[in-house]
Amino acid sequence: MTVNLLDFDLDNLAVFCEQLGEKRFRAVQLFRWIHQRGCANFDAMTDLAKSLRDKLSTVAQVSAQNVVSQHISGDGTIKWLFDVGSGNAIETVFIPEEDRGTLCISSQAGCAMSCRFCSTGHQGFSRNLTTGEMVGQLWHAEHFLRHHLQRQERVITNVVMMGMGEPLQNYSALIPALRTMLDDHGYGLSRRRVTVSTSGVVPKIHQLAQDCPVALAVSLHASNDPLRDKLVPLNTKHSLDELLGACTSYLAHAPRDFITFEYCMLEGVNDSVEQAHELVRLMKSRAVSGLRGKFNLIPFNPFPGSGLKRSQAQQIQRFAQVLLDAGMVTTVRKTRGDDIDAACGQLAGDVVDRTRVAIRIARQRDVDLKAAAATTSPGTVCVH
Ligand code: SAH
Ligand code: SF4
Question: What does pTM read for this prediction?
Answer without folding.
Answer: 0.91
